[in-house]
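Title: Comparing notes on inverse folding

I've been comparing how different people in this forum approach sequence design from structure. To keep things fair, I'm posting one structure and asking everyone to reply with a full sequence. Here's the target:
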């Protein structure tokens, strides 16, 4: 390997590294934001109830049912 060899980093990677260096709390803030919206505990029983209560969709969604056509 030559003496002048340096591993390549893209512009985007450099920008992210600079951003993290300027604001060290960035990753913790991102994780906290993710926890607000995505990291939720699911109730398996409630999910099963939602599945059983689901009403099947009609073949043609915008069509009227025979009862409504009269």
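Reply #1:
Here's my take.
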């Amino acid at each position: 390997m030559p003496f002048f060899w340096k591993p390549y980093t893209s512009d985007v990677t450099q920008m992210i590294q600079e951003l993290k260096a300027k604001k060290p709390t960035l990753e913790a803030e991102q994780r906290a934001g993710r926890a607000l919206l995505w990291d939720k505990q699911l109730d398996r029983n409630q999910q099963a109830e939602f599945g059983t209560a689901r009403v099947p969709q009609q073949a043609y969604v915008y069509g009227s049912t025979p009862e409504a056509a009269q």
